[in-house]
Structures are given as structure tokens and as C-alpha cells.
Amino acid sequence: MLTQLQHLGHTILTVFERLGRASLFLMHVLAGVPGLLLRPYLVIYQIYSVGVLSLTIILVSGLFVGMVLGLQGYNTLVNFGATDMLGVVVALSLVRELGPVLTSLLYAGRAGSALTAEIGLMKTTEQLSAMEMMAVNPLGRVVAPRFVAGVLAMPVLATIFSAVGILGGHLVVVELLGIDAGSFWSQMQDKTEFMEDVFNGILKSLVFGFVVTWIAVFEGYDCVPTSEGISRATTRTVVHSSLATLALDFMLTALMFSDI
Known about the structure:
- It contains nine helices and no strands.
- The protein is mainly α.
- The protein has one domain (2-256).
- Helix 2 packs across helix 6 (138-176), helix 3 runs antiparallel to helix 4 and helix 4 (86-124) runs antiparallel to helix 9 (227-256).
- The mean pLDDT is 90.
């Protein structure tokens, strides 16, 4: 019994110790962000790396998610004679929940893991140490551009995901199932509010981008400098980012859309 309590206490202390180091790491990264104003090309290149190169999976996933929403929504609402509300169901599901959440999960799996592996490899090959020897701050030169790029790219990717999803829903509902296009778009425009729905969805994606990118760059910078250490850090990035996204989604939804 005592051994189990000791193991539990050690695990809790380890978690808080890593959380403390991650918080200090974040403060140092944020301190290096203003210096990027003199080197915007670093951020632009990283936006291309984590954002543009992630577009394919975002576009394909958004299209099929919207198509599934339209099909499942039709199968449910047709029993109540409420198929005119399909546009509202598809739009609100995407801009409020599925767009930000699924984009964050896809981003963590594609771009987050790549960020962790890239920074971890630079640490393993002592490139970060070489920068320090040359009086170059690796947090400002390597980590900060990737962090800023991730935070900026996530809302754009989530918006694209939602837009393509709505088009996918239109493709199934209007073109395949024959629902009137006018009612699909008019009900969507009438029931969807910009500040309450669209803006809150963008705000969610911004929070997800901040947290997921923070986890990704920290795990890469803090990993054990071996091939096995990089592998474990990449796995932790995907797992922790996914859990953080789902937990934050509940809390943000409760604050934005609920009376809790």
C-alpha cells in the first residue's frame, strides 16, 4: 500500500514539475515573439509548413464530415418533417464544434507531431546547443516562429474546414437528396449568428492552436535527445494535445453556449 502511495505521489509531483517547466518555457517563448517583427520571413515559412501543407487533410476531412452531417441530419429530421432545417444543423455543428475540434485533432496529428520531431531532432543533433554557443537564443530563433505560426494557422484551417464542410453538406442535401437550395441557405443565414456562433468557433480554434502548438514545441524541446526519446515525445504530443482539445472544448462550450 505504501509503495502504491509513493508511486502515486511521485507521478503527481512529476506532472506538476513538467507543468511548471512548460509554463516557464512558454514565458521564454513569448518573450522572443517581439523579435520576430524584425524577421517575419521565419513566421511566414513556418505558416507554410504547418498551415499550407496541412490543407489537403483539412479539405478532404471537412468535405466528408459535412457530407456525413447532411446525410445523418436528413435521416433524422425527415421523420419530423423538418428537413428545411438541415442547413442550420450542418452549419451550427461545424462552426460551433466539429470545425474547431476536428481541425485541432488533425493539426495535432499532422503538424504538431512534425514540430515535435523537428525540434527534437535539432536537440539530438546538438543544433540547439550550437546556437547557444554562438550567442543565438534557440527559443527566439527556432521555437517562437513555430509557435506563432501554429497559433495563426489554426483559426484559418478551422474556418476552411467549416466552409468546405458546409459545401459538402450542400452537395448531399441539395444535389443528392433534392432538398430545396433556397431553404437550405436561407435557414442557415437566418439562424446562424456571427458573434454567437462563428466568432466563438474561431475563438475556440485560436485557444486550441495556442495550447496544441505549446505542447508540440515543448515536447520537442524537452525530449530525451535519442531516437527513442523523440518517438516518445511525438506520441505524447498527439495524446496530450487530443486530451487537451477535448477538455478545453467542454469548458469553452460551457462558457460560450451554455447557461452553466
